[in-house]
């Protein structure tokens, strides 16, 4: 294997596979890790189109001795979806639901099918797949089968293994098998089982969440000798699955939620065994520290019963039960519980909000309560439910002994505990603590008759620890099974049998220290770019289609469906940059290519629970990559647009001439080619009358009053775009604010936030502009005068990037805190808020399609805008996701097709389906430009809508 290069292996695969094969350094970087702490760089990544491709890939693996690892969404927490040879990604092509049989309640799926896709399709028949891990909106069935995934409803429906009828798979020698119940199929397997019957019966299958190692109990004659169930949880080490027939169950009707409050988590766990008699659908444990982290992250959480630990218990209707019967049974459970602190909710929004605490907490578990990085490793232990309380007490004591912490939660009905821990693994000198804890934790869980893993598999994180849980005879039996199925050891080596060491391939300790270099400080990550990019834990929220649920991440992946263009893929490449082995230069082609299609929308900074901000990382990379070097053309043109637009609009006649010339198609195309802009784009018009020269701005004071008196002052900051390109929003804002009782001020001189400099990595220029802005605006902020922005992306700079670019300037914090969006200002309490008599117009019966700007959503949040719009009574259609133009991104040559594809995801369909008289509301200049150029829709600013009310529609139709 070592003698085979990536090109050698890729060449052999390309000769025989119909699917794509990629051995590029960048692609290998993207697949070098999964949702775990481990780094294993593959030789090549391939995307099989069908079972024949899988057979051919296995043949190449046998011929060359290069190992093969199967991969779905790559969210495995234990390092079981990475490998040193060929990685087969099933999620791109082998993602078909082949059949749903509602009569038999079964479905046939390929391994790349996302569970949520099957849930949606089966839901039409009132059915679902029972197990539902938290990653179900991106997890594939191949991965769920590999790890024996469970989720909260496994307490009612069982593990993935319990819901598998049949598996079609290839063995390492190329033999295709159909595994089911009643026949081992593989010669020699029944003999291995017969030789170890007594030990298998006493050590295996002792409780539901015992999934560590090979599940030999399924091969026992009394259990039906079920090879399919046995293969579930084997982590791709015994066979490569190409098709699965799964069991479906009816969707639970009228589920009620019972929330029980206890003194702490162990006390809650102590009560679980008695409550299981009520046949709950789910029993989840939630810790007070986790609730507090969710509260800090989201601003608030629904009211919970008093306590320091909670059980969230779902009760569903049994046959013949009504909704009232379910609620009565839920009340009975609550009265039976060993607590008087409880809350019972019927199915509906109230219960959904409470469940969201659990869902959000799981995502936020990648950071400790003190916001330190927390890592997988011991994130999936399980014990019999009756032993859970004591196990939790001893686990907490072990954490305290090592000075470690983490947010604890889990599937308490099955005895499974999830916790990511702040292991000090940023250098090799501190990894002994990691090993010591893992060894002692393995001994602890074994002493309680538990399992190293309850649903994530053992992978590289726990396979070395299996001898601490099982007898030598069982470990030897695992080895015999592996040798029978895969004698050459080509299927996912380093996992379960002959495992890699628990601390040998850790990703984080090998990263170089990349400290502050004059651009962003990354203050939230101890001034370390390395630490910042390692926020990504690989859980893959960015791969999930969550737009209908109100999320915005990740627009480029939604358009291309390529790991290269997803938040996680970019983070992996930047982590490899920090590692320095595959590439080490900031201007490496791999790095620049990875970041090329990033729209810098910042959605990941809000929607990813780790707080990762790829837009900021991209800016830093461009800053360091082009220091002292020639930059791309668009950095000089679009990156300096405020300066260029300022020069053109300085003289109205010049602006008019420029508009006339750029309206001539041949001239525009030539100009755009010179400037590096896509010729299919239109040219936004320069303002022939700047905002500062408009009637609305005339007479406004630039004087900073030292005493506010009785007047309600506000500083209207018109950014460069609102000043020189489209001043309609700024003009309307003046009139609206005056109507709201404000005395409107404008800056005494022009200021720029440096947005385009930031997006193109010209951070020295951005800092210079922001320093000047602070000189102008800080005195107003110091006197308690709120600053209200017009363009969301520029407002976001003052609220976010300013603080990390100029953290040493005390004025940064001052200006940031006093900067408001229009909606924030108009919904603020006194003395910042509007006059008491201010009210929004009545727009009952008016349809409004709203495109929140990505930076508005991501940095400031859109809650107050939504609140204002609801007050109007209008019918609101909120577009989620990016418009696709994203400032200079969609204008640049080479980005047009992706820009349009992003717009086609949500924005353009919403505009097409809207009533012809619907109002299109978009505060962002680029959002309005995209809609106008691609759909002919004229957008307006919130200030225009609130100023004009019902007259808005008639004004737009003129």
Explain how this protein is built:
The structure is a single chain. With 958 residues, the protein is of the alpha/beta class. The protein has 42 helices and 26 strands. The strands form six sheets. A seven-stranded antiparallel sheet has the order 15-12-14-13-17-18-16, sandwiched between helices.
Q: How many individual β-strands?
A: 26
What is the first-to-last residue Cα distance? 72 Å
Ranges with pLDDT <50 over ≥5 residues?
A: none
Sheet having the most strands: 7 strands, antiparallel
Number of helices: 42
Mean of residue pLDDT values: 95
Strand order in space, largest sheet: 15-12-14-13-17-18-16
> Which bin fits the share of residues in helices?
25-40%
Principal-axes geometry comes out as globular
Ordered list of secondary-structure elements with their pairings:
Elements: H1 6-16, E1 21-22, H2 25-30, E2 44-46, H3 51-64, E3 68-71, E4 86-89, E5 97-101, E6 106-109, H4 115-123, E7 127-128, H5 141-147, H6 154-157, E8 164-170, E9 176-179, H7 189-195, H8 197-203, H9 227-231, E10 240-247, E11 249-250, E12 256-262, H10 265-270, H11 272-275, E13 282-287, H12 288-298, E14 309-315, H13 323-336, E15 342-345, H14 349-364, E16 381-382, H15 388-401, E17 406-411, E18 416-421, H16 431-447, H17 459-462, H18 472-485, H19 529-533, H20 555-560, H21 567-579, H22 589-596, H23 603-607, H24 614-625, H25 633-636, H26 641-649, H27 652-662, H28 665-675, E19 712-717, H29 720-724, H30 728-739, E20 742-745, H31 755-759, H32 763-782, E21 787-789, H33 792-805, H34 810-817, E22 819-820, H35 822-826, E23 847-850, H36 854-860, H37 863-872, E24 875-878, H38 896-905, H39 907-913, E25 919-921, H40 925-935, E26 939-940, H41 942-948, H42 951-957
Parallel strand pairs: 2-4, 3-4, 19-20, 19-21, 21-22, 23-24, 23-25, 25-26
Antiparallel strand pairs: 1-2, 5-6, 6-10, 7-11, 8-9, 8-10, 12-14, 12-15, 13-14, 13-17, 16-18, 17-18
Helix pairs in contact: 1-3, 12-14, 15-16, 21-22, 30-41, 32-34, 33-34, 33-36
């Amino acid at each position: 294997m070592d003698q085979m290069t990536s090109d050698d292996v890729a060449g052999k695969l390309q000769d025989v596979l119909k699917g794509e094969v990629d051995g590029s350094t960048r692609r290998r970087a993207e697949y070098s890790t999964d949702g775990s702490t481990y780094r294993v760089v593959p030789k090549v990544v391939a995307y099989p189109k069908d079972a024949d491709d899988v057979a051919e890939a296995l043949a190449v693996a046998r011929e060359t001795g290069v190992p093969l690892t199967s991969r779905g969404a790559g969210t495995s927490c234990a390092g079981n979806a990475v490998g040193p040879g060929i990685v087969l990604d099933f999620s791109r092509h082998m993602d078909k639901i082949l059949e749903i049989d509602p009569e038999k309640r079964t479905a046939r799926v390929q391994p790349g099918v996302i569970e949520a896709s099957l849930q949606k399709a089966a839901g039409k028949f009132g059915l679902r797949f029972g197990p539902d891990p938290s990653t179900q909106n991106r997890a594939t069935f191949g991965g769920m089968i590999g790890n024996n995934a469970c989720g909260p409803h496994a307490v009612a429906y069982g593990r993935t293994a319990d819901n598998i009828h049949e598996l079609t798979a290839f063995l390492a020698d190329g033999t295709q098998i159909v595994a089911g119940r009643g026949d081992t199929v593989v010669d020699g397997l029944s003999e291995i089982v017969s030789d170890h019957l007594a030990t298998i019966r006493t050590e295996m299958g002792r409780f539901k969440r015992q999934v560590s190692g090979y599940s030999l109990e399924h091969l026992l004659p009394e259990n039906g000798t079920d090879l399919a169930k046995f293969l579930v949880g084997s982590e791709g080490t015994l066979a490569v699955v190409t098709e699965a027939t799964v069991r479906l169950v009816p969707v639970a009707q009228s589920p009620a939620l019972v929330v029980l409050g206890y003194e702490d988590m162990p006390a809650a766990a102590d009560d679980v065994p008695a409550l299981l008699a009520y046949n709950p659908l789910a029993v989840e444990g939630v810790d007070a520290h986790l609730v507090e982290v969710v509260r800090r992250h989201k601003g608030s959480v629904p009211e919970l019963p008093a306590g320091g630990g909670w059980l969230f218990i779902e009760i569903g209707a049994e046959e013949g039960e009504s909704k009232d019967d379910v609620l009565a049974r839920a009340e009975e459970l609550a009265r039976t519980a060993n607590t008087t602190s409880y809350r019972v909710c019927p199915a509906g929004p109230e219960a959904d909000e409470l469940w969201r605490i659990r869902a959000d907490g799981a995502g936020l578990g990648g950071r400790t309560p003190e916001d330190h990085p927390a890592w997988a490793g011991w994130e999936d232990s399980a014990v019999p439910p009756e032993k859970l309380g004591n196990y939790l007490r001893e686990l907490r004591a072990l954490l305290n002994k090592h000075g470690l912490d983490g947010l604890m939660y889990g599937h308490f009905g099955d005895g499974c505990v999830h916790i990511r821990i702040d292991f000090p693994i940023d250098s090799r000198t501190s990894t002994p603590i990691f090993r010591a804890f893992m060894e002692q934790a393995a001994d602890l869980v074994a002493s309680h008759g538990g399992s190293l893993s309850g649903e994530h598999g053992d992978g590289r994180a726990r396979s070395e620890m299996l001898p601490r849980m099982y007898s030598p005879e069982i470990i030897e039996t695992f080895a015999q099974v592996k040798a029978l199925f895969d004698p050459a050891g080509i299927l996912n080596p380093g996992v379960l049998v002959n495992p890699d060491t628990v601390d040998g391939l850790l990703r984080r300790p090998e990263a170089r220290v990349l400290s502050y270099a004059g651009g962003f400080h990354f203050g939230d990550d101890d001034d370390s770019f390395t630490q910042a990019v390692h926020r990504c834990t690989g859980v893959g929220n960015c791969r999930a289609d969550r737009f209908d649920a109100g999320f915005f991440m990740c627009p480029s992946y939604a358009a291309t469906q390529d790991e290269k263009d997803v938040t996680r893929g970019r983070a992996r490449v930047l982590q490899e940059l920090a590692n320095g082995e595959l590439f080490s230069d900031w201007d490496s082609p791999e790095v620049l290519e990875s970041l090329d299609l990033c729209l810098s929308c910042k959605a990941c900074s809000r929607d990813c629970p780790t707080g990762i901000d790829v837009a900021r990382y991209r800016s830093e990379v461009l800053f360091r990559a082009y220091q002292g070097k020639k930059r791309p053309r668009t950095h000089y043109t679009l990156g300096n647009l405020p300066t260029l637009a300022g020069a053109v609009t300085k003289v109205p006649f010049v602006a008019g001439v420029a508009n006339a010339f750029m309206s001539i198609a041949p001239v525009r195309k030539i100009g755009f080619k010179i400037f590096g802009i896509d010729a299919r784009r239109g040219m936004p018009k320069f303002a022939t009358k700047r905002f500062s020269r408009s009637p609305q701005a005339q007479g406004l004071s630039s004087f900073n009053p030292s005493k506010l008196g009785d007047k309600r002052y506000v500083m209207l900051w018109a950014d460069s775009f609102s000043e020189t390109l489209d001043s309609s929003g700024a003009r309307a804002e003046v009139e609206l604010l005056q109507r709201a009782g404000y005395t409107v001020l404008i800056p005494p001189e022009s200021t720029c936030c440096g947005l385009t400099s930031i997006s193109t990595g010209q951070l020295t220029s951005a800092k210079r502009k922001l320093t000047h802005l602070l000189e102008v605006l800080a005195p107003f902020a110091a006197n308690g005068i709120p600053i209200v922005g017009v363009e969301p992306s520029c407002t976001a700079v003052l609220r976010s990037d300013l603080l990390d670019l100029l953290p040493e300037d005390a004025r940064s914090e001052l200006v940031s805190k006093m900067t408001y969006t229009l909606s924030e200002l108009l919904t603020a309490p006194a003395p910042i808020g509007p006059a008491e008599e201010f009210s929004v117009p009545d727009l009952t019966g008016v349809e409004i399609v709203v495109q929140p700007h990505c930076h508005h959503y991501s940095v400031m949040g859109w809650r107050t805008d939504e609140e204002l719009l609801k007050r109007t009574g209008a019918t609101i259609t909120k577009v989620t996701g990016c418009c696709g133009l994203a400032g200079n991104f969609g204008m640049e040559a080479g980005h047009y097709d992706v820009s349009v594809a992003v717009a086609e995801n949500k924005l353009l369909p919403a505009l097409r389906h809207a009533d012809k008289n619907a109002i299109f509301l978009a505060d962002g200049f680029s959002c309005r430009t995209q809609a106008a150029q691609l759909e002919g829709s004229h957008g307006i600013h919130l200030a225009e809508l609130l100023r004009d009310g019902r007259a808005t529609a008639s004004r737009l139709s003129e």
